[in-house]
Amino acid sequence: DHVNCGGINxxxxxxxxxxxxxxxxxxxxxxxxxxxxxxxxxxxNNCVFYRSNHGPxxxxxxxxxxxxxxxxxxxxxxxxxxxxxxxxxxxxxxxxAILNTPGNGVADDKGIYYFVPKMVxxxxxxxxxxxxxxxxxxxxxxxxxxxxxxxDELVIKDVAEAGGYGVxxxxxxxxxxxxxxxxxxKDEPRRFISQQVIDxxxxxxxxxxxxxxxxxxxxxxxxxxxxxxxxxxxxxxxSRNPSSFIVNSSQGGGFKDTWVLSR
Length: 263
Description:
Blueprint: E1 8-12, H1 21-31, E2 34-36, E3 41-44, E4 47-52, E5 55-64, H2 87-92, E6 97-98, H3 112-124, E7 135-136, H4 141-149, E8 154-158, E9 167-169, H5 175-187, E10 192-196, E11 201-207, E12 210-224, E13 228-238, E14 254-256
Parallel strand pairs: 1-2, 1-5, 5-6
Antiparallel strand pairs: 3-4, 4-5, 7-10, 8-9, 8-10, 11-12, 12-13, 13-14
């Protein structure tokens, strides 16, 4: 029988060694949720419980900040030490809500970039207002040919990676590695996209006691429901490496204050 556990809200984090741990703790504080690691939670009778100082407390909803593969070692990767055993059993029983449900990142694939302008045209019969970085999908022959011929001008991205991993600038590769990458693209064309290199804006940042220019980008926050609303704020990230375009925190990137002067 399905039993609705109700209970507290939990932010499930991999722990303090994760590059985004500050965000996890801040989100928990601001949402008045409990920040928990895997050892803080357990499943009994298909319900999830939090080990508090005053005894077990039922968990009603979880916002997880770890990948599907690591959520439950009894359901996905058995070597995961950051998941909660039997979490999926509790979820399947309807006794806990997982806000970012397993599989919700099915379209979180860089290959989708290629199709976004086409989706706008198909579903809205409009031309996109904001342009994509020119994107090529080697799965298609014309794009494969273009990618192989212009590798020096392109950035190659592994569609299954995130956080700045799997990003290769063709211009930075020696001849031997460039050829090896071409062979890999030929062997697994669906695994990669290629894009024209976009020259990010240089913004002044503090590096120790010096003000220096570093590549930076802005991530906007958009709420979409009955209407779509662009929130008057954003996340500005910058590269600490003066020669790098990669700004992700997992690659050592930093964050700047974002000022919205007008709307």
